[in-house]
Write a structure and sequence with these properties.
Elements (H helix, E strand, L loop, with lengths): L2 H7 L15 H9 L8 H7 L4 E12 L2 E12 L3 E5 L6 H9 L3 E9 L2 E2 L5 H8 L1 E4 L11 H7 L7 H14 L1 H4 L11 H13 L5 E5 L7 H18 L2 E5 L3 H7 L2 E6 L2 E7 H6 L1 H7 L3
Parallel strand pairs: 3-8, 3-9, 6-7, 7-8
Antiparallel strand pairs: 1-2, 1-4, 4-5, 9-10
Helix pairs in contact: 6-7, 6-9, 9-10
């Protein structure tokens, strides 16, 4: 068999790993939809969260404008746990994060954090009063500002600028890599350093819940490992609760305590991250074989 034909036979799913046939995006969506025929009972979600949910979504219907993206979606994650959302493109993964933080229109259902209904709170109030921080995808730093000034901006809701500066110093003490570049403009940072700055800026307000959107996007492998090590430390060392969307499903599920598979705005599968890694259908559709 010639090289071009052999190459064609080794692309499937999201195009990662060696496999034997081509699966289009449409086929991935169609076959993934078959996973969701039985639904996930609430008691199963509760068990995965240790029967002590810190963040709870119940029956959420949400979207943009008049378009509903999430349909009767539910989620539970315990304090200090990590949850990774995977699924085909357009499944509604980022919409879950947007809905928790207040970036969508809510048509029904609720979002509760530590027993408090925060469904209708603004993003500012989610950060200030509910301790929820959103770490955006790449390129969210202010390139013309210094690293130090970017960190100060993370404390824009604090009562006094001195509080933000004090928190920035704590972050510099924790991450010497940033401290060495504190007066450099953010635009000169490497991809990994920018992602570290994005994460660190979200920490200035000392949130309890981190919503992390595609932490590995656009990064070289060595920086991907660094970012996940930082997130692991924030979860296990500081007790942060992490809800993540990650296109690199293998990396995300290796990291997370819990994994959810979303399809067409609904929950198709939910299990421990390592269990989903071993599931043959998840592997075939999302892990490259």
């Amino acid at each position: 068999m010639g090289a071009p034909e052999e190459a064609k036979r080794k692309v499937r799913g999201y195009g990662v790993g060696g496999v034997e046939s081509v699966i289009s995006v449409e086929d991935v969506n169609r076959q993934a939809a078959a996973l969701s025929t039985q639904g996930i009972p609430e008691h199963r979600l509760a068990a995965l969260a240790g029967n002590a949910a810190f963040v709870t979504i119940q029956g959420l219907r949400a979207g943009y404008g008049k378009m509903e993206i999430l349909h009767d979606f539910s989620l539970q994650v315990g304090k200090g746990q990590s949850l990774c959302l995977i699924g085909p493109n357009g499944a509604g993964k980022s919409t879950v994060l947007h809905s928790i933080f207040g970036f969508t229109n809510i048509f029904g259902g609720s979002v509760t954090i530590d027993g408090k209904n925060v469904t209708r709170l603004s993003p500012k109030d989610k950060l200030r009063t509910a301790g929820v921080a959103y770490i955006l995808q790449d390129k969210s730093v202010f390139p013309g500002m210094t690293v130090e000034e970017n960190l100060w901006m993370g404390g824009y809701l604090m009562d006094k600028p001195a509080q933000a500066k004090e928190k920035a110093e704590e972050i510099f003490a924790k991450y010497p890599r940033l401290a060495q570049r504190r007066r450099h403009p953010a635009k000169v940072l490497s991809g990994g350093e920018r992602r570290l700055l994005e994460i660190s800026r979200a920490l200035v307000m000392d949130p309890e819940v981190l919503l992390v959107d595609e932490p590995s996007i656009g990064l070289e492998p060595r920086f991907i490992d660094m970012v996940f090590e930082i997130l692991d430390d924030l979860q296990k060392g500081e007790g942060k609760t992490i809800i993540m969307v990650e296109q690199n499903a293998k990396k995300g599920l290796e990291f997370a305590d819990i994994g959810y598979v979303l399809v067409a705005g609904g929950l198709a599968m939910a299990d421990h991250g390592d269990a989903l890694l071993q599931d043959p259908e998840v592997g075939r559709l999302f892990l490259g074989g």
